[in-house]
Each structure stands twice: as structure tokens, then as C-alpha cells.
Write a structure and sequence with these properties.
Layout: E1 7-10, H1 20-36, E2 39-42, H2 56-67, H3 90-102, E3 106-109, H4 113-125, H5 149-155, E4 163-166, E5 173-178, E6 182-187, E7 195-197, H6 205-215, E8 220-224, H7 231-241, E9 249-253, E10 256-257, H8 267-272, H9 294-297, H10 301-309, H11 324-330, E11 341-342, H12 345-358, H13 361-374, H14 381-391, H15 400-403, H16 406-410, H17 417-423, H18 426-441, H19 447-460, H20 465-477, H21 485-492, H22 494-509
Parallel strand pairs: 1-2, 8-9, 10-11
Antiparallel strand pairs: 3-4, 4-7, 5-6
Helix pairs in contact: 1-11, 10-12, 13-14, 18-22, 19-21, 20-22
Bound molecules: glutamic acid.
């Protein structure tokens, strides 16, 4: 139950997969709600039918779920202020647009797309390439401000098509205090008379967004910087409705910038730098529009959250590791930065590595299981658990669990020939045969007793560690890299170790 009146919403449009910037917006809204004892709401802004993409809403819900950002109100959840999908609220918006017509804050416009186009061309011919329907040009257009009452009456009945536009006042300054950007001023002469209700009776983003924020009693609008230019219109809308007294406060989040160079992070950067810029995989009709997300790259949701939290915010201390719960306690809007946040993928991986290290092997094994199953490796839960425990210090992304130790599952596919030929000789072969027997005879088959037995064997036979261990590793793993060799033997088990030694010796002889 909320214990404050603070209500925030994440209001994505289902026009495609939710990019990482959208996820950060959701996260900051969530954190602010939790920090203040308020309510986090999900609202789907799907009034633009032309841009609707099937599967996008599902994607949004799944992404929030994966990250643990559960809304308290929203589609499929319900709540007192529903429905939470704008397409299901479409009947209401017309009434609000009419309210503005009646109080003179909006007007009907009858210009057809062709007429608007002709006007645009006419202006361009005069050298004005930025035609705008605004508080000057509206006086030259076909609307209820320029036509007689009788004409307007005719044009708004009998199924004639029209739009409703916001009547931007002349020569005013609109000032508000953004919680991130501080004081921001818009000159009304710079603003266009935005369409509020379209010819098909559907509201535009601006109308639906303001009406819903009002009806849903939203107290704080936390959203990306790209919406800052619209805020002048939004404030004028609140004024036009007479809702200024309950207008939410605004906080515009800084841009997320490309890892290198200038400009904001784009979908293309994902492919270019082989990194995820979306939370989950997206399967489109064409290969080139499909991609993998943070989850499929092998990120833990906790790491993705921690990384995203720091993209534009920091607590002002040295602490970098924050669980979602800690973030809920520590987050504050005042510490959001004004300047853009660089998307540093190495930092994202660093976070993941920290979380993998801090996660217990049983949990890691559960997460690794689907990856193992996709490869059709047949391994027991017990094996996977010990494996994750052995390998977790060598892993950055969850997928590394497979690539770093694939020889555990597949056997050795390729040996490090160069290092074999330098070291292998008949004398060493005899030692290896004896070593194999020793391993085969070890009753207490665990890393500790194996270590003692093998080291005693090496010392007792006047051998050097460097003569045995590199080759032993190559025999078991194909490479000299890898985790602790005694734990490796314990995990492979006696039969498999002895079999690998035999196979390796035969191969080594031929090099
Ligand atoms: N539907 C808008 C979007 O897709 C919402 C912007 C806002 O939060 O006001 O981002």
C-alpha cells in the first residue's frame, strides 16, 4: 500500500521494442515511487494506430518483469484509475477536446492535408521553409477562428472531417522549474498550434497524455529529455483546462550517449559495437531488425539495473554496487545529472562480473541450465552446480560459463599442439602413465587429496611441476588456461579423467 500521494507513471508507446533509454526511464520512476512511498504506474500510450507494433506491449511487460520493476497499477494488473491502455480510453478524450473548444482555448481546423501541403509550398516559394500552424499563420488558414459561425456549423456536422488544435496564446513566456534542468522558459511565439484531436477522432499524444496524467492523479512526470520541447505545450494545456493547480512536476532525464563520439545511443550502435542496447531479444520478420538483449548477452538483471541506475544518476559517494532495494533507499531526483550519460559497455560488463562473483553457485547453475540445454549437453544438476562454483571467478557474462569451459561438456576438441611438442617426450610419457595409474587408484577422489598425491608423485620422482602441470592441463582441457587443475579433475571424475589422459597421450605421441 502506498503511504504517500506521490504517483508516477511509465508511459511507453508500443511502437517497437523498448530500448534501454526507456528502461532507464521506467527504473527512475520506479525508484522515485519506492523512495517516496508512492505508486508506480504503467500506462500504455497506444493512440497512434499507424505506429502500433504487435508484440511491443508484451515486450514492455516482459522487460519490466525480468528487471523486477513491477508496476502497482497498469494493464493486466488493473487499479482504481484504469483502463491503463489509452486505446481503451479513447471515447473520453473527445469530451476534453470539446471542453477546450467551449472555453476558447482550442479551435476546429478544416484544412485538408492537400491544403496544408499547398500552403507549405507557397511559403517555401517565398523563402520560408519552416511553415508552422501557429498563432500567426492560423489567421490565414481554414479554421473556426477565420470562418463564420454558419460555415463552422456546416463543417463540423454531416460527417465532415476536422481536427481540433490548441490555441497557443500570443507573445507569452511559459516558465516552469524542471526538477533536473531547473528553470526552463518557452516563448509561445515559438510554439505551434498542436493538433489535439485527429480527424479520425483519436487524440494525439499531447492531449491523451495530459488528460490521463490529470485523471490518474500523476504528481511527477519523469521522462526522457526528448520530451522537454513538448513541455511548453503541456503546461499550456494544463492552464487551458484550468488544472494548473494540480499540474505534476517535471523531471527530464539526460540523454544516453554513444560509447564513443557524439550523439545519442542508437539501435545501430548495438550491432556496431556488438553490445546490447535493448533489455531482451526481439524477433522481427527480417534478420537485420532482430537482435539480442541484455538477458541473452548473459547479464543478470541485478547487474543491468545497477548499470542503468548509474546512467545519469549517482549517489555522490564512492559506492558503486547497489541492489535494487538499496537504490530504492538512496535514489533522489536532485542527484540526476543534467549532462548526457555515456553508455560505457565495459562498465556494464564490470557490473555483471561483480554480480556473478557475488551470486551463489546454485542460483548461477539455475540460470546456466537453459544455456546448457540449448546446446543439448547432458549434465546433472549436481555437476552444473559444482561447475558454476569452479568457473564463476572466470566469468563476466553468463554465456561465458559455456565458452570458458566448453571442454567440460564436449571433451577436448583441439589440443594446444605448440605447447605439446615443446614438452612431450618418452620420459614424460612414462611419468604420465604412472600419473594416470595414481589418479585411478586415488580412493578419496577430491581436489585436496588429489593435490597432495600428485604433488608427492612429482617430488618423489624428481620431476618439476612445470614438466607435468602444463601437459596435464592440455590433456584435460586442450589448453593451458583454466581453473584449478585439481578441482577440474575432481569435477571430471575418475573415469573421465583417466579416459582423457589416455586419449591425450596417444595424440601427444603423434605430434
Ligand atoms: N508515450 C511517450 C513515450 O513513448 C510518453 C512520454 C511521456 O512520458 O510523457 O515515451
Amino acid at each position: 500500500m502506498p503511504n504517500s500521494n506521490i504517483r508516477v507513471r511509465f508511459a511507453p508507446s508500443p511502437t517497437g521494442p523498448l530500448h534501454i533509454g526507456g528502461v532507464r526511464t521506467a527504473l527512475y520512476n520506479y525508484l522515485f515511487a519506492k523512495k517516496t512511498g508512492g505508486t508506480f504506474i504503467l500506462r500504455i500510450e497506444d493512440t497512434d494506430q499507424g505506429r502500433y507494433v504487435a508484440g511491443a506491449e508484451d515486450y514492455i511487460l516482459k522487460s519490466l518483469k525480468w528487471l523486477g520493476l513491477d508496476p502497482e497499477e497498469g494493464p493486466r494488473i488493473g487499479g482504481e484509475y484504469g483502463p491503463y491502455r489509452q486505446s481503451e480510453r479513447k471515447e473520453m478524450y473527445g469530451k476534453y477536446a470539446m471542453q477546450l473548444i467551449e472555453n476558447g482555448k482550442a479551435y476546429y481546423a478544416f484544412d485538408t492535408p492537400e491544403e496544408l501541403d499547398a500552403k507549405r509550398k507557397e511559403e517555401a516559394a517565398k523563402g520560408n521553409h519552416n511553415f508552422r500552424y501557429d498563432n500567426v499563420t492560423r489567421n490565414e488558414m481554414k479554421n473556426s477562428l477565420t470562418l463564420s459561425d454558419t460555415e463552422v456549423e456546416q463543417l463540423t456536422t454531416n460527417g465532415n472531417k476536422f481536427v481540433i488544435r490548441l490555441k497557443i496564446p500570443v507573445n507569452e513566456a511559459v516558465t516552469f522549474t524542471d526538477l533536473v534542468r531547473e528553470e526552463v522558459t518557452f516563448q509561445t511565439n515559438e510554439l505551434d498550434d498542436k493538433v489535439l484531436l485527429k480527424a479520425d477522432g483519436m487524440p494525439t499524444y499531447h492531449l491523451a497524455n495530459i488528460v490521463d496524467d490529470h485523471l490518474m492523479k500523476i504528481t511527477h512526470v519523469i521522462r526522457g529529455e526528448e520530451w522537454l520541447p513538448s513541455t511548453g505545450h503541456h503546461i499550456l494545456l494544463y492552464r487551458a483546462f484550468g488544472w494548473e493547480g494540480s499540474m505534476p512536476q517535471f523531471a527530464h532525464l539526460p540523454l544516453i550517449l554513444k560509447p564513443f563520439g557524439n550523439g545519442k545511443l542508437s539501435k545501430r550502435d548495438g550491432a556496431k559495437f556488438n553490445m546490447p542496447v535493448f533489455p531482451l531479444a526481439w524477433k522481427a520478420d527480417s534478420e537485420k531488425d532482430s537482435f539480442l538483449g541484455f538477458r541473452e548477452f548473459g547479464f543478470l538483471p541485478e547487474a543491468a539495473i545497477n548499470f542503468l541506475a548509474f546512467l545519469g544518476w549517482n549517489p555522490g559517494t564512492e559506492q558503486e554496487m547497489f541492489s535494487l532495494e538499496e537504490l530504492c533507499e538512496t535514489f533522489s531526483i536532485e542527484k540526476i545529472s543534467k549532462s548526457g550519460a555515456r553508455f560505457d559497455y565495459d562498465k556494464a560488463k564490470w557490473y555483471n562480473q561483480q554480480y556473478v562473483h557475488a551470486t551463489d553457485a546454485a542460483t548461477l547453475a539455475k540460470m546456466t541450465r537453459p544455456l546448457v540445454d540449448v546446446k543439448e549437453y547432458e549434465v546433472s544438476d549436481e555437476f552444473l552446480l559444482s561447475y558454476c562454483d569452479l568457473m564463476k571467478d572466470r566469468v563476466v557474462l553468463l554465456n561465458d560459463f559455456l565458452s570458458e569451459g566448453n571442454y567440460f561438456f564436449e571433451g577436448v576438441r583441439e589440443y594446444d599442439d605448440k605447447n605439446i611438442s615443446k614438452r612431450w617426450n618418452p620420459e614424460i610419457r612414462r611419468s604420465f602413465e604412472a600419473l594416470s595409474e595414481l589418479i585411478n587408484g586415488t580412493a578419496d577422489f577430491n581436489a585436496n587429496s588429489l593435490e597432495t598425491a600428485i604433488k608427492n608423485f612429482i617430488n618423489g620422482n624428481n620431476l618439476k611441476m612445470g614438466q607435468i602441470f602444463p601437459l596435464l592441463r592440455i590433456a584435460l582441457a586442450g589448453t593451458m588456461k583454466g581453473p584449478d587443475v585439481f578441482r577440474m579433475i575432481e569435477l571430471l571424475g575418475k573415469t573421465e579423467t583417466v579416459a582423457r589422459l589416455k586419449k591425450a597421450m596417444d595424440y601427444f605421441d603423434k605430434i
